[in-house]
Each structure stands twice: as structure tokens, then as C-alpha cells.
């Protein structure tokens, strides 16, 4: 690496070497927050009293730990309980990871409508997803 820069928000690192790389390191903060809220969410889930927010927290925890199948199950249930206020971006990423391109595309499109992330990020995700779908169709 030739150059490393930390963004002012301390959430991203930009590095150069044989090209540019951007790392988002904000996941650790999200994980800490989830870890604090998770015990109550799990308790309510066990009692059959989980709210959409509880299910979303559990789903996000699974997503951050690399279990997109479990994450999507909890995130889908959260969306069923509260479709207007549950984030769909984590669900879009899970669908993409699971190879469910059409469901991922629909969820990313909904994330764009809701402005759940910077427009450029969502545009890049949709573009990559569409290129992958086109490549899969050619094979």
C-alpha cells in the first residue's frame, strides 16, 4: 500500500496500492449496538411476543455474522409485521448472497425508494446484480 486515509467520520478507510480500495469499518459499531439490544429481542422472541424491531435486530445480527438464510427468515417476518418501517437493504443483501437475484433486485429497488443508503451505493449494488444476472443467463 502506498497511501491510507481515514474518512472524517472514521467509518471508511481508503487505500491505494495497485488500485484503490475502500473499506467500510462501521460494522463493528452496528454490531456493538445490536449486541446490547439482542438479549431482550431474543427473550421476546422466545415468549412469542417479538416485535418487528426485535425480528429486524435478530435478522441484522445473523446478516453481520454471515448467515444470510437465517437473517432473511427473520427480516422477512419483520417486514410482514411492519412493511413500511422495516429496512429492506439487509434483506436485499441476503437475497443477493443466497443467489435469489430477482428478490434481491426488488428489495434493492425498494431500498432506493426509501433512501435507506446513499444513492450511489444502491446504484452500484443494482448494477452489479444486473451484470451477474446477465452473466448467469448467458451461461
Question: What would the keywords be for this entry?
Answer:
single chain, mainly alpha, Serine Threonine Protein Phosphatase 5, Tetratricopeptide repeat, three-stranded antiparallel β-sheet, 6 helices, globular
What is the structure about, briefly put?
By secondary structure, the chain is mainly alpha-helical. The chain has six helices and three strands, in the order E-E-E-H-H-H-H-H-H. The chain has a single domain (26-138), classed as Tetratricopeptide repeat domain (Serine Threonine Protein Phosphatase 5, Tetratricopeptide repeat).
Q: Which range best describes the helical content: under 10%, 10-25%, 25-40%, 40-55%, 55-70% or over 70%?
A: 55-70%
For this structure, the quaternary state is single chain
Radius of gyration: 17 Å
The residue-averaged pLDDT reads 87
**What is the distance, rounded to the nearest whole angstrom, between the alpha carbons of the first and last residues?**
36 Å
Domain tally: 1
The CATH C-level class name:
Mainly Alpha
CATH topology (fold) name: Serine Threonine Protein Phosphatase 5, Tetratricopeptide repeat
> How much of the polypeptide forms β-strand, as a percent range?
5-15%
CATH architecture: Alpha Horseshoe
Strand arrangement across the biggest beta sheet: 1-2-3
In total, the number of strands is 3
Number of helices: 6
Main sheet properties: 3 strands, antiparallel
CATH superfamily: Tetratricopeptide repeat domain
- What would the principal axes of the Cα set say about the shape? globular
Q: Helix and strand string, N-terminal first?
A: EEEHHHHHH
Amino acid at each position: 500500500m502506498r497511501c491510507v486515509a481515514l474518512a472524517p467520520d472514521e467509518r471508511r478507510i481508503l487505500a491505494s496500492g495497485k488500485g484503490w480500495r475502500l473499506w467500510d469499518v462501521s460494522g463493528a459499531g452496528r454490531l456493538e449496538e445490536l449486541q446490547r439490544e439482542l438479549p431482550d429481542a431474543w427473550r421476546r422472541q422466545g415468549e412469542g411476543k417479538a416485535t418487528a424491531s426485535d425480528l429486524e435486530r435478530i435478522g441484522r445480527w445473523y446478516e453481520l455474522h454471515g448467515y444470510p438464510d437465517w437473517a432473511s427468515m427473520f427480516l422477512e417476518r419483520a417486514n410482514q409485521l411492519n412493511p413500511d418501517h422495516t429496512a429492506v437493504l439487509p434483506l436485499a443483501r441476503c437475497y443477493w448472497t443466497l443467489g435469489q437475484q430477482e428478490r434481491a433486485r426488488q428489495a434493492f429497488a425498494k431500498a432506493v425508494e426509501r433512501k435507506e443508503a446513499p444513492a450511489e451505493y444502491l446504484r452500484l449494488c443494482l448494477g452489479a446484480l444486473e451484470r451477474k444476472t446477465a452473466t448467469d443467463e448467458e451461461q
